[in-house]
């Protein structure tokens, strides 16, 4: 059995999840606030006489009571500081026409390093083929030594071949002389 039993150890805390109903209520309250602000900006004080807006204000009174209950549940400085959950923000998708394809594309660190590595390898290969690197110089020196050894071996073979030919020609002459007698 793991240390600390089944319930876990000292790490982590109990998770508190928000129910979907609470999230919906919060979203509706925010929408209602936004509508009220827009109405105040547009209509000003002349909006009091409109019956549709009076119904909305009655509905908003009920939601205000819910908001007050919700605000009473807040602890510490949460009531003083207006905090917006970034996870609840709806992200708008960009249209294809809004995308900036012509602008310079920022490469990641790995991509930059990979490109630099490829360029360095190409530079090294060019210098190596030109014979300017130390490894290329060592290779050329080794090749020169091997060529000399091969030339010497070829000369020796040629001399041995000539010696064999001379010996065989001399042997044939002796045979032909001995047969002619």
TrEMBL record:
Residues 85-162 form the Casein kinase substrate phosphoprotein PP28 domain. GO terms for cellular component: cytosol; plasma membrane. Residues 50-59, 102-117, 151-167 have a biased composition (Basic and acidic residues). Residues 1-14 have a biased composition (Basic residues). Residues 1-117, 151-181 are annotated as: Disordered. Pfam families: PP28 (PF10252). Residues 60-69 have a biased composition (Acidic residues). Signal peptide: none annotated. PANTHER family: 28 KDA HEAT- AND ACID-STABLE PHOSPHOPROTEIN PDGF-ASSOCIATED PROTEIN. This is PDGFA associated protein 1. It comes from Terrapene triunguis (Three-toed box turtle).
């Amino acid at each position: 059995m793991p240390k600390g039993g089944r319930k876990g150890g000292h790490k982590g805390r109990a998770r508190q999840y928000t129910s979907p109903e609470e999230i919906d209520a919060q979203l509706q309250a925010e929408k209602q606030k936004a509508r009220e602000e827009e109405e105040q900006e547009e209509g000003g004080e002349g909006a009091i006489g409109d019956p549709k807006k009076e119904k909305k204000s009655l509905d908003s009174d009920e939601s205000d009571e819910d908001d007050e209950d919700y605000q009473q549940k807040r602890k510490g400085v949460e009531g003083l500081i207006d905090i917006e959950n970034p996870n609840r923000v709806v992200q708008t998708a960009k249209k294809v026409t809004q995308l900036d394809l012509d602008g310079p594309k920022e490469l990641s660190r790995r991509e930059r390093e990979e490109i630099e590595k490829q360029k360095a390898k190409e530079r090294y290969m060019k210098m190596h083929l030109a014979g300017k690197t130390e490894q290329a110089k060592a290779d050329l020196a080794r090749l020169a030594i091997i060529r000399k050894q091969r030339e010497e071996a070829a000369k020796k073979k040629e001399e041995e071949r000539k010696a064999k030919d001379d010996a065989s020609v001399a042997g044939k002459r002796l045979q032909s002389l001995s047969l002619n007698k």
